[in-house]
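Listing S7. Sequence submitted for prediction.
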Amino acid sequence: MSIAELRERFVANGRPLPEGCEPALRDDPRAGARAVYETVMRRRRENRAEGQRLRHLLRFETVLWEKGLTRIAGVDEAGMAPLAGPVVAAAVILPAEFRPRGIDDSKQVDAAERERLAVEIKAAAVCWAVGMTTVEEIDRINIYRAGLLAMRRAIEALATTPEHLLIDARRLPELRIPQDGIIHGDELSLTIAAASILAKTTRDAMMVELDEEYPGYGFARHKGYPTAEHFAAIASLGACVAHRRSFAPIRQALGLEPVQQQLFAQPPGGGDSERRPPRRIDVTSPRG
């Protein structure tokens, strides 16, 4: 074949090398042919590495599959740290054969790739759903419990009841579904990573809408996070109704005293938080 034919077939179209072609390309005296060989070998190494990465991401799911479970829901939330906008959670049940290339924790994937993956996840999922808590709910029940509530709403909105939950760093003891709370779960579980991407893309779209409703704050760019641009806008325009009034920077902008509340105490009768010792803190940072 000519160099152009080799490039078109094995590089542009990504066709596998026929038997006997690999050593012939490797030993071909033409520099262009050897370049095609190197490209094909590099692609093969990348595919092998991606396969290993995906197998590593499925180690929690694999244990459950081996027990005969198939309806495994990954759950994650987005929007705990911002000064404005809702908390959005997603729950997703994926088929066992789903292997989306490039899937990762939503924070490790750029916006365009997140949008591509979100479309692929939704199309392949057995079912998926999102849940949210409003700014008013965040201010009333605190940000920690608001995150738990958004997760519960996402799970309860699924069209199929999960047999097991994989949740990023949390547990929902009020749900009578077996579950694992996995620290850094969005980096360690493919199913949680998929939920992370759905939660992030859904919330980002909502913040773009808020930007149109409340221009001047830059919500479409920073998504409500505490950036220098956002602080400058608050200093200039004051707080709008999309801002969380239980967060210290917003209270300061409104001339209000910091709120002291018990964020992580177990509520009476169990409630919707993890079992943690009570801790009183001043709300003095956007982390809640």
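Caption to Listing S7: primary sequence and predicted structure tokens for the chain studied. Residues 59-282 form a domain with the Nucleotidyltransferase; domain 5 fold (CATH 3.30.420.10). Strands lie at 72-78, 87-93, 127-133, 164-168, 179-182, 260-262, 280-282.
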